[in-house]
Design brief:
8-stranded mixed beta sheet
């Protein structure tokens, strides 16, 4: 199938992609692309989540908790907050208050290249949070000149730019530009559509050498 084509603005393209992402299995994208997949150590802290949203980014340096507050104010409905911890995997920038604030802004989720805290409270909110784990050690009420909001950041080994698509489920997280996602979406949807028939053939006992590509 040909790639998705939309005439009009970037918002038009974003709307079309958002409407169609509910039908695609994110691991299917891994059949067709090699780049954009975050370090698999970054996993959902909730079960049964599926997130798709445009990135709002923050780089946190020197345990700067104020940077997260500024990023929360930059959120918009449907956004996914992507947090670059500048290599710090010990201090948690995300907890109960952060989650509540993100939800109040309509965020779809948070992805942090580091740890989170307040696990029980996070799960109670239902906000999808992806992290490397949890910790009692948190960021502090200090400012650091190296922090910044809505700039290109690194998260899980992938460069994330404001407005990129962030796709996350219990398998992991993918970040793609709108153009890259639009170019691959039809192929992924076609593959998903073909899978039930393939599984049915296997379940029916059809010889694998006639079912599987070799």
């Amino acid at each position: 199938m040909s790639a998705t084509r939309v005439e009009g603005t970037a918002e038009d393209l974003g709307s079309v992609l958002a409407d169609r992402l509910a039908d695609v299995s994110y691991p299917t994208i891994g059949h067709f692309l090699e780049d954009g997949f975050l370090d698999p150590a970054i996993q959902s802290l909730l079960d049964g989540v599926k997130v798709a949203g445009r990135a709002v980014t923050v780089r946190i340096a020197g345990n700067d908790a104020f940077a997260m507050n500024r990023a929360l104010l930059a959120l918009h409905p449907g956004a996914v907050l992507v947090v670059d911890m500048s290599g710090d995997h010990r201090h948690a920038p995300v907890g109960a208050v952060t989650a509540a604030a993100a939800l109040s802004r309509g965020a779809a989720g948070v992805v942090v290249d580091g740890v989170a805290t307040d696990l029980a409270e996070l799960r109670a909110t239902g906000l999808p949070v992806f992290a490397r784990g949890t910790s009692c050690l948190t960021t502090k009420r200090i400012h650091h000149d190296g922090s910044a909001v809505n700039i290109p950041v690194m998260c899980g080994g992938v460069e994330v730019r404001p407005g990129d698509w962030v796709l996350g489920d219990n398998n992991g997280v993918i970040v793609l530009s709108p153009e890259a996602l639009g170019a691959i979406l039809d192929r992924a949807l076609a593959s998903d559509a073909a899978e039930p028939a393939l599984l049915a053939r296997i379940a029916a006992g059809e010889p694998l050498d006639s079912v599987l590509a070799v």
